[in-house]
Amino acid sequence: MPFLEFHGLTKRFPGVLALDGVGFAVERGTCHALIGENGAGKSTLGKILAGVHTADGGEIRLDGRVIAPDSPLAARELGVAMVHQELAFCPNMSVAENLCLGDLPRRAGFVQRTELRTRAKAMLATIGADIDPDVIIGTLSTGREQLVQIAAAVGTGAKVIVMDEPTSSLSAAETAELFKLVRELKARGITLIYVSHRIEELFALCDNITVLRDGKHVATERIADTTPHRVVTQMIGRELLIATPNHLAREPAAERLQVKSLCSPGQFSDINLSVRAGEIVGVAGIVGAGRSEVVQAIFGLDPEATGAITVDGKLLRPGSIESALAAGVGLVPEDRKRQGLVLGLNCRENTALATLPALSRLGWVNRAAERTLTSRYSQRLRVKAPSLESLTAGLSGGNQQKIALAKWLARSCDVLLIDEPTRGVDVGAKAEIYQLLDELACEGKALLVVSSELPELIGLCRRILVMREGRIAGEVQRADFSEATLMRLMAGVAAA
Amino acid sequence: MSSPLRHLFRFQESGLLLVILALGVLLTVFSGAVRIPSFEIAADGSRQRVFTVGADGERVPAFVEKNKFLNTQNLAQLAKDTSFIAIMAVGMSIVIIAGGIDLSVGSIYALASVIGALTFQRFGAATGTAPWLAVTLGALACVGTASLCGLANGGLIVSLRVHPFIITLGAMAILRGIAFVATKGQSIGGFPPLFRELVRKETSGGLSLVPLGVMLVVLVVGWIFLSRLAAGRRVYAVGGNELASRFSGIRVERVKLGVYLLSGLAAGVSALIALGYYGSASSGDGQGYELNVIAAAVVGGASLTGGRGTALGAVLGALIIQMISSGIVILGIDQNYSQIIIGTVVIAAVVLDNFNTWLAKRRLTKG
After folding, report:
1. Which residue of A has its CA nearest to B365?
2. pLDDT, tens digit, for every residue of B311-325?
3. Are A265 and A306 in contact (CB under 8 A)?
4. Interface mutation vs chain A, best among B223, B227, B236, B247, most A CBs within 10 Å
5. CATH number where B221 lies
6. Which of B240, B241, B249 comes nearest A322 by C-beta?
7. Considering its fold, how many domains does chain B have in total?
8. CB nearest A333 (choices: B237, B247, B249)
9. Which residues span the domain enclosing B130?
10. Cβ–Cβ contact B231 with A under 8 A
11. Beta strands per DSSP E along A173-291
C-alpha cells in the first residue's frame, strides 16, 4: 500500500479552480517530484498537505489513515512539515529560540537557556548541519536558513517534508549540500515532496515524478522511465485561448520604448530591449529571473537602477515614477491585490486613481467627468461588477485585473508594461484579456508583457525575450516560438 | 422594510445615530429630575433670577423641575463640550484614514493655546494696540503654531521613516514641555475683551454659537475634503494600500505630510476657541485629549488599518464620547470612572468593527 495517497483533491480559489480532482500515490522514503507550469497547482497541493490551505474536496491518506490538517500545526502533529521559500522564522531571534519556539524549555516561566541550546544542537545534529544555535536567524543565508527549517522538521519527527522551490535562491554549493541532505533523509525513511520548476534538478534527485497541468493530474511516473523531454511535453500542450492576434497583420510602427544597459545591483544587469508602436513583446523566465524587477525599474520604481530608458526618444529620469507617467508609461503590476488596486475603494475610484489631476480643477474632483471616463473604460473592458460603486475587493480576479488595466487606459497611457496579465484569472476572462491586449496593440499602443504562462506569450506576442538569472538569455521570433525552445532558454538547458 | 427606511439604514452613519439615540433615551430615563432656578431677561438685557412672593409675603426664588439630561441648559453644554473634541476628531480621522495616528493633538492644543495667550497678552489693552489687530495676531499665532507642529510631525515621519506612533509620542512630550517652559508653569490670562465677547456669544437658551458653528464649519470642510477633493481621495488610497498608491503615481510622502498638518490645524482651531471661551491658557490644557479624540475617531468608524472613516462619523463619535463622560456626571457616578469607561468603549468599538469586517469578508468569500 502506498504511504501517501491523494484522491480527487479539489481546491477552488475565487475565480480559479486551482486543483481539479488530483489523485496519485507516493511511496515511503522516496523523493517525489511535483512539476508543472505556474498556476498548474503544484504549490497549492503542497500547501494543502502541509495544512496551509484546506481542500474543498477529495481526501489525503497518510499511512492508510485519512488526514485533513486545517493548520500547519495540525499537519506538524501528523508528521507533515513544509520548507518554505520565504523566511518562515522570526528573523530577530536566535536559531535555538526559533527551533524551540513552539515548546520553549522553561521552569516557572523562565527560559532554560542551557536546555534550549542542547535541544537545538540535537535537532541540528540530526541533519548534520554545522550551525551555531546562538546565531540570529536573520543573519543566515537563505541556504543555511533552509537547513534550519529542515532541522526543525526532522527534529520534531516529520515523516513527510514538502519542499517548495527549495533551490530557487541557493548558490551552486548550497544546492549540492541540499541534495546530499535530501538523499540522507530518504535513507532514513523520510518521504519528500519536491516542488520545482527545474527539470534537470528533479532528474538528478527524485525517484518519481508527477506532472500537473491546469490543476489536473497528467502523469505520475518513475524518473527512470521518463525523460526531461517527455516531461516538458506533458507540462505544455495547454489549449491556446486566442486565435492568431490581429495586430500581427500590421508591421509595427515607430519605436516607442527603448531600454539600454539597464542594471540594478543584485536584481538584473545589462538589459537592452525596445518596443514599437503596435507591437506586443513578451518577457519569459522562471520566477526569480528578474522579469518583474525590470518592468518596475522601467516604471521608475527602482531607485538603484542605472541605464538609459527612453520613450519616443525622450530620456526618462531613472527612479522617477512621475517622469515615467509624464511619458505615458503605465504598469499593471504582477500582484494586483498588493500593488495594483486599493481594494477598499470602489471601481470608479480605482479606475480614476492615476487620473485625478486631469479630472480635478483646483483640487475639486469633477464627479461627472469622472463617472463618464470610468464608465467608458469599464464598458470598453467589459468589467462585470454590480455597479461602478461596488468595492473592488468583491470582484473576481478577472474583473479586478480589468480595473487595474483600466486605470492606465483612462490616463491614456500608450506604453503599457503588463506583469502577469492573467494570474489568478479564470478561463473566460483570460480570453477576454487576450483579445483586449490585441485590440490595444492594433490601436498602436506599445505593450511589454511579462508572463509565466508560455502559451499566453506564444499566443500573443510578436517576439519574446527570455530572462535567466537577471539577464536576457535570448530573443525568440514568432516563427520560432515553441514552448520547448522557450523553456530550454529559461532553464539554460541545451537543445535536446 | 419600506424603501426610505432601508435607505436610512444603508446610510453609513446610521449605526452611530442609533447609538446616540439610545444613549439619549437611557440618560433621560435614568437621570431623574433636577430643580433648576428659573431666569428671566430683565429690561437691561441681563439675566435675572425669578422670585415668587410666598403666602407670608416673603420673596422665594422660583425653581422649575426639569429632566437632568433632557433640558436646554444641559444640551447646550453638551453641544459646546462636544465641539472642542469634534473639531480635533475630524483632523484625527483624516490622519487615521491615511493609515497614521497622531498622539500629540493634546499637546499641540496646549502649546497653541499658550502661544496664542502669550500673544494676546503681549498686545493686550495696556499696550495700546488696536483690539482687532491684537485678536488677529493672537488667532494667527495660535493656529499657526498648531499647523507648524503638525507639519513637523509629518516631516519627521516622512523623512526619518519612523512609525507615526513614535514620532507623535515624542512630540506629545516635547510640545507640552515647550508650553510649560514658555509659561513657566503659570496660567496666562488678560486677553482683549473683544475676543472673549466674540467667542462667548450665546442664544437666550445658553447655547454657545461660536464653538458649535466652528464645529459645523470644520465638519463641512472635512466632509468636502474627504469626499469631493482629489487630495481626500488620495488620503483614502494611501491608507487603503500605500504600495498600490505609489504604483499609481501618487506622491505618498506629500499626502502623509498633509494629513498631519491638517490634524495640527484642527487642534489649533479647537485651542483658539477654547482660549476665547475660557479666557486663559496653561501648559496643562488639553491633558489626555488624545484619548478622547482618538476614541471619537475610532468610535466614528475610522479604521486604524487605514482607508476607512468619515468626517461625520468623527463628529458623531465625539458626541458619543462626550455623552458618556457627561452622562457619568449626570448619573452621579464617581467621575474618576470616566477614563475607565471611555477606554472600554474604544476597545469595544474596535472589536465590533473587526467583527463587522470579518462578517463582510465571509460574505465576500461565500458569495
Report:
1. A14
2. 999 999 999 999 998
3. no
4. B247
5. 1.10.3470
6. B249
7. 1
8. B247
9. 77-366
10. yes
11. 191-195, 208-213, 216-222, 255-264, 268-276, 280-284
